[in-house]
Amino acid sequence: MIKTLSRVGNSQALILDKTMLELIGVDASSEVEVRIEGNKLIVTPAHDDKRRKQLDASSGKLMKRFAKTYKRLAEP
Q: What angle do CA 11, 47, 49 make, to 5 degrees?
Protein backbone atom coordinates (compact mmCIF):
# COMPACT_ATOMS: atom_id res chain seq x y z
CA MET A 1 0.00 0.00 0.00
CA ILE A 2 1.32 3.43 -0.91
CA LYS A 3 0.65 6.24 1.58
CA THR A 4 1.43 9.95 1.32
CA LEU A 5 2.76 11.98 4.24
CA SER A 6 0.60 14.89 5.39
CA ARG A 7 1.92 18.17 6.79
CA VAL A 8 1.04 18.80 10.45
CA GLY A 9 2.60 22.05 11.62
CA ASN A 10 6.36 21.80 11.00
CA SER A 11 6.20 17.98 10.93
CA GLN A 12 5.00 15.26 8.60
CA ALA A 13 2.34 12.70 9.59
CA LEU A 14 1.51 9.27 8.27
CA ILE A 15 -2.24 8.69 8.43
CA LEU A 16 -3.11 5.06 9.20
CA ASP A 17 -6.55 3.75 8.29
CA LYS A 18 -8.75 2.21 10.99
CA THR A 19 -8.47 -1.15 9.21
CA MET A 20 -4.67 -1.02 9.33
CA LEU A 21 -4.75 -0.26 13.06
CA GLU A 22 -7.16 -3.13 13.71
CA LEU A 23 -4.84 -5.52 11.86
CA ILE A 24 -2.00 -4.81 14.31
CA GLY A 25 -4.33 -4.73 17.33
CA VAL A 26 -4.30 -1.05 18.25
CA ASP A 27 -6.77 1.82 18.24
CA ALA A 28 -6.42 5.60 18.19
CA SER A 29 -5.62 5.75 21.93
CA SER A 30 -3.03 2.92 21.93
CA GLU A 31 0.67 3.48 22.38
CA VAL A 32 2.89 2.17 19.60
CA GLU A 33 6.60 1.56 19.33
CA VAL A 34 8.23 3.19 16.31
CA ARG A 35 11.73 2.18 15.22
CA ILE A 36 13.89 2.43 12.15
CA GLU A 37 15.64 -0.59 10.65
CA GLY A 38 17.78 0.41 7.70
CA ASN A 39 15.46 2.46 5.52
CA LYS A 40 12.27 0.97 7.02
CA LEU A 41 9.92 2.52 9.55
CA ILE A 42 8.49 -0.22 11.80
CA VAL A 43 5.34 0.45 13.85
CA THR A 44 4.31 -2.16 16.46
CA PRO A 45 2.01 -2.14 19.48
CA ALA A 46 3.82 -1.02 22.64
CA HIS A 47 4.36 -3.82 25.14
CA ASP A 48 2.51 -3.39 28.37
CA ASP A 49 3.36 -4.94 31.73
CA LYS A 50 0.33 -7.25 31.76
CA ARG A 51 1.26 -8.70 28.38
CA ARG A 52 4.92 -9.09 29.40
CA LYS A 53 3.93 -10.92 32.61
CA GLN A 54 1.72 -13.30 30.62
CA LEU A 55 4.58 -14.02 28.24
CA ASP A 56 7.01 -14.60 31.12
CA ALA A 57 4.56 -16.99 32.79
CA SER A 58 4.01 -18.91 29.54
CA SER A 59 7.71 -19.19 28.79
CA GLY A 60 8.37 -20.39 32.35
CA LYS A 61 5.79 -23.16 31.94
CA LEU A 62 7.37 -24.18 28.63
CA MET A 63 10.84 -24.26 30.19
CA LYS A 64 9.60 -26.56 32.96
CA ARG A 65 7.63 -28.78 30.61
CA PHE A 66 10.40 -29.25 28.07
CA ALA A 67 13.48 -28.89 30.32
CA LYS A 68 14.90 -32.29 29.34
CA THR A 69 14.47 -31.57 25.65
CA TYR A 70 16.08 -28.12 25.92
CA LYS A 71 18.98 -29.63 27.86
CA ARG A 72 19.53 -32.30 25.17
CA LEU A 73 19.38 -29.68 22.42
CA ALA A 74 21.97 -27.57 24.21
CA GLU A 75 24.47 -30.42 24.40
CA PRO A 76 27.20 -30.50 21.71
A: 135
How far apart are the C-alpha atoms of 4 and 42, rounded to whole Å?
16
By three-state DSSP, how is residue 71 classified? Answer: helix
- Type of residue numbered 19: T
**What is the pLDDT confidence band of residue 53, given thresholds at 50, 70 and 90?**
confident
Count of domains forming the chain: 2
Q: How many of the other CB atoms lie within 10 Å of CB of 41?
A: 9
Q: Do 2 and 14 share a structural domain?
A: yes
| C-alpha to C-alpha distance for 71 and 57, rounded to whole angstroms | 20
